[in-house]
Amino acid sequence: MKNNHYRLILEGFAIGTNVVKVVPVLKKMGVAIGKIQHLLVSPPRIIKEYESLSDAEHGQNLLTKLGALILLDPVISYPDFPYFLSKSDDRIIKKELSKILRTRSNMTLLLTEIQSPGSRTLYPSVFSLLEEFLNNLYRETDTVIAVDENHFLVLGFASDKLGLSALQNKTLRGLKQHLGEDVLVKFGHSIFPGEAQSIEKLLQQMIISKDADYHLSSDISSPGPGLEVEKKQTIEMNEDDQWSPIQLCFLKGQGPVFSRLISMEPQILWLGLSQMPSNKQRDFIARLPFDSPLISALEKFMADQEHSGSSVETQAAERHFSAIINQMDLMSSIIQRDKKTEEVLSILKQTNDLPILPIVASQIFKIASDPNYSNQELADLITRDPALTSKLLKTVNSAFYGSHQKISSIKYAASLLGAEEIVDIAFGLAVAKVFDSHRLREWGNPQVIWHHSFCTAMILKYLYKMIPDQKNEGVFSAGLLHDVGKIFFIEHDLKFYHKTVAGHSLFEFEETDFGINHAEVGKHLAIRWNLPDSLVHAIAYHHEPFMSSYHAELAAMTGLADYLYHRAMEEYTKEVAYNKFGQCELTHGHLLCLPPPFNDLGGEKLESLTETVWTIMEENQSYITLTS
Length: 628
Fold this sequence. Notes:
This protein folds into five domains: 3-77, CATH 3.30.1390.10; 84-240, Alpha-Beta Plaits; 244-328; 344-349 and 437-628, Hypothetical protein af1432; 356-432, no CATH class. It is built from 31 helices and ten strands. The strands form three sheets. Strands 2-1-3-4 form a four-stranded antiparallel beta sheet. The longest helix has 22 residues, at 552-573.
């Protein structure tokens, strides 16, 4: 619960004011002599906080009569946050957080404390710095707020932990240049909405440690002796430094390294995995293939927290892991991969280079968000796009929907199948334009990606029909868009991407070479397009549903549909060409998130599902075309 207070801020003095007369009044108000000196020498500064408005107004009147320019500032005190916030600034923060929620982006809240190295040094207050310097230091999309004389808060728009280091370093360099090299700086930060979704919890996470050890940030070029950053923050900026090489095998190992790890004997693998925190152990187990014999063995080790073996065996295991690191040149590849990851993220932040959601798709979502929209309005919108109308009518007349009579109008389709169903199909089909870009045609056959995406949508729709009393709105779009991140990779042709991918599984190549996969890229696109959270999570986590906070079931079901598509293609066509586009392996994490009747997939059940899926694709082959 927040509490209301009031503070008086001395902004300066009227011309001709006898400042000497102000001193005894300030003393009578309980202001310390040392603080009075600072107030008189370098306003604006805070005089005092009051719980009572009448007391604050009384103090304001006394000082105003003597020629002092006093601002009475209503402020708010939040639990466990040791600083007051102006009510107007509190409203600004809430407004900015609301924008972030609407745009489905991120924001870093960076609390900065400025201290002088000794009692003889007097820096201007943050209120003064805000006018002179701070507002010009940060980009237009960032917001800077003066908390008090020594603290200010930066709201870094579209910034997350990856951008935290840059924001901190900009602050450090700017303060050094403006105030001198001996300035002492501390940081506190929180990430919205990833770490907290209320202003109270965000502020609680930004507490600055008063007894922290300090050292120079390795990210600062030739910093001055006083330009220091809290040790905790530097560790977060260089996250790999806190992990041993063996731990990095489990955290960073992708592709061949991951394959090498899961080929070990369980007791040897556990010797390395036991060095990880328990949550990281669970994450690793969730990545294993759903039928891996390692799962039960590692879960037993984890439950007992056995360390297996003598010190001699442990040393032998460490040598075994070290051999993996050396052979795969893991440390070098991590450095190179991180650079490529930064390159991809940089492009993703340049919104002009991202695929654009077709206008008709945006309009479909807009009209569907109105609870009072009619089938006629929906039909009128769709029929304005002849190509979309043709694709939609072909789809609803397919064998998959099993209509006994020909559906010839969008309005009739909506009345027969339900408006929600038509919205879902129409939106997904409207996005088909993204799958038919010029670069995709140059690189290969976009029909292959579209075939996989459309079939996955139908498979996912079918799977949801098997879940009793389960709403399935949006699942067709989830299946259709789950691999949209691939289009980004292909269109940007990042270095040797199109040459290398021909010999690799796409997902494995992305993880190994770029450190970011098409699912993560798809998440960026989905957020950019302002899609619902359920679709964002289905796209982002269909390979790793256990990472989804709120929509793990839909992500897992999307991954299952993806897996069944590739399984059917391999079994019935022997077409390996499709596999290079990123086959989704079914993991233990999928089984943990799948609902009944899919959370216990044995061999016979999988065979039966695969056969049904192939039948669905065969019966609807003539409808699965990118062109109308």
